[in-house]
Amino acid sequence: MTAVAPTSGPTAGGTTVTITGTGFTGATKVAFGQVAATSFTVVSATKITAVSPPEAASMQTVFVTTAGGTSTPVVAVVVFFFDAPVPTVTAVDPTSGPTAGGTTVTITGTGFTGAGEVTFGRLAATSVTVVSATKITAVAPAQAAGTRAVTVTTAGGTNAPLAGDQFTYKGAAPSITTITPTSGPTAGGTTVTITGTGFTGATKVTFGRLAATSFTVVSATKIIAVAPAQAAGTRALTVTTSGATNTPLAGDLFTYEA
């Protein structure tokens, strides 16, 4: 034997490989390592075509057997590489969870066999279970609020992050306990101090359906907001963060006075 072409193919097998050399007449067997070819055809005394069998990711020497014996391995010339496929992630479920981590996420895609690592952004999953070649369950690690790409690494490589593999960490929903003052003119302009919890990273403060004229997040438990102008009446204040929006309660009502 002098050459094989191509020199690599998927672990699933099915690659048609052309083997060149001499003395192939009457060949009785072609093998990739210790596994027989799925099928083979003796084209001539110097050429055989063989279909690679399924095999784990590895480098295997190709052998030809005839009545005269089995070819002597020439590793640098007649090896075939079984390449594991690069995994792909098509979906994650659920797509969000708390910053504290602990969410069990089902990952679907392809090429997961033998997966060694699953990451959420730069952090490794707390635990990983490879259910099948197309399904993994992984537990999200704790990290700051934000959206992270989920990646799976196997012998074939790491999937390229796409839209379907995003997981969003959400902080706890904020809550409001008190507001001071609890009333102001319909012209707006009242500076209101809001106390509660979970205010870090607040993106919006509203008085009823209208956004505050401006607001400042002083701390995780305090916001100062300026009431917008609107008609007389009582409005619930809401604070929105990456975690969600607070549920209006008795302590978050602001009254516009004519």
Briefly say what this structure is.
With 258 residues, the chain is mainly β. The protein is built from no helices and 29 strands.
Average predicted confidence as pLDDT: 92
How many domains make up the 3D coordinates?
Answer: 3
Shape: rod-shaped
Which range best describes the helical content: under 10%, 10-25%, 25-40%, 40-55%, 55-70% or over 70%? under 10%
Cα radius of gyration in angstroms: 32 Å
Strand residue percentage: over 45%
| Assigned CATH class of the largest domain | Mainly Beta
How are the SSEs placed, and which strands pair?
Elements: E1 3-5, E2 8-10, E3 16-20, E4 29-32, E5 35-36, E6 39-44, E7 47-51, E8 58-66, E9 69-70, E10 79-83, E11 88-93, E12 96-98, E13 104-110, E14 117-120, E15 123-124, E16 127-132, E17 135-139, E18 146-154, E19 157-158, E20 166-170, E21 175-180, E22 183-185, E23 191-197, E24 204-207, E25 210-211, E26 214-219, E27 222-226, E28 233-240, E29 253-257
Parallel strand pairs: 2-10, 12-20, 22-29
Antiparallel strand pairs: 1-3, 3-7, 4-5, 4-8, 6-7, 8-9, 8-10, 11-13, 13-17, 14-15, 14-18, 16-17, 18-19, 18-20, 21-23, 23-27, 24-25, 24-28, 26-27, 28-29
Tell me what the structure shows.
This protein is mainly beta and 258 residues long. The chain has 3 domains: 3-83, Immunoglobulins (Immunoglobulin-like); 88-170, Immunoglobulin-like (Sandwich), CATH 2.60.40; 175-257, Sandwich (Immunoglobulin-like), CATH 2.60.40. The protein contains no helices and 29 strands. The chain has strands at residues 3-5, 8-10, 16-20, 29-32, 35-36, 39-44, 47-51, 58-66, 69-70, 79-83, 88-93, 96-98, 104-110, 117-120, 123-124, 127-132, 135-139, 146-154, 157-158, 166-170, 175-180, 183-185, 191-197, 204-207, 210-211, 214-219, 222-226, 233-240, 253-257. Strands 2, 4, 5, 8, 9 and 10 form a 6-stranded mixed beta sheet that branches. The model has no long low-confidence stretch (mean pLDDT 92).
